[in-house]
Amino acid sequence: MERMKGVVVTEENTVIIADDIPVPELGPYDCLCRVHACGFCTGTDFGIIHGKANAAQGFCGFPTVLGHEGAGEVIRTGEKVRHIKLGDRFIHPNLRPDVGNGYTKTYGGMAQFGLVCDQRAMVEDGVCEETAVPFYQKQGRFPPSIDFPDAAVLLSLCECHSAARNFGVKLGDRVLFYGAGPMGTALARFMKLYGAGEITVIDGIEERLEYSKRVAGTDRTLNFRKSCLSEAIGRERFDLVVDAVGSSALVLEGSQYLKEGGCLGSLGVLKAGDTMLDASRLKNNVRLHMLNFPYGEYDILPETVKLIEQGAVNPKDFYSHVIPFTEIERAMKLLETREAFKVVLDFDV
Fold this sequence. Notes:
The chain has 349 residues and is of the alpha/beta class. Helices cover 24% and strands 27% of the residues. It has helices spanning 44-49, 119-124, 148-151, 154-166, 182-193, 206-216, 229-233, 248-255, 301-310, 328-336, and strands at residues 3-11, 14-22, 30-39, 64-66, 69-77, 89-91, 104-106, 113-117, 140-142, 175-178, 199-203, 220-223, 238-243, 258-266, 287-290, 321-324, 343-346. The chain is globular. It starts with a strand and ends with a strand.
């Protein structure tokens, strides 16, 4: 059995580079991908590392292989594959739930190899219905015009693009964001492309607020460490308020800044222990739109790629460091200290 290396959480707050992860064996409709890069998701990946993820969020138990932002290319195909060819590039190469050798996967993208599937061939052959393709159904093809480090943030960009659409931002809407990290900044950028009017962003790191202005076109920033938000906002009310941090307290607070009938969007992943939201404390006559998990992110991939190729969105704006995956501890430290905006792990080492 072939073995590979990957980033594994062995127990809460313990991350290692394992070298005995089985390379997945191919079924007839499977394709083996060589993973070249994988983004580190501060919300999901740190949630798993710190023991804040649960089974409903995809956590399968320790020891588990991390990562859902992988990008790779097909190097081997099963005998019944006919719609995927060698060299095709995919985001989210995956592993089977039972990885082997005692490992689980949550979500398994931080490994040297992963699987994608010829879903179209399976449906054509009557192996499964279109709505019941295998566990690794979440995959997306991207063109060679996008390099692998950029592709490692492509899924995040698609999540934000789909969120802008799902939240229903309209031309001229006034929007308030909590969080000027990669997700909040990307979502603000897509909302601007959808015609949002004035966008206000709240964060506690001045450099990120300024960066949001440059990259997303944010109109106004508020540093909660330097000013009282309720005084700064005053009686101003917004059409849409978004929590891009992942906190039920911010969801409740943000509802108070909505216009009557406004939409409260929750994009940040709520952690285990912070999943009970007292709806009675929400402002009356507002709508709550939960995106604790992305929705429609793969469907919108072709449109997102088109925006990238047109120059409307630059993936390089949404990560600051490319680091060998073998230096995972350094990558985590840079993210925890906020020295890094986002880290892409390089698997070509």
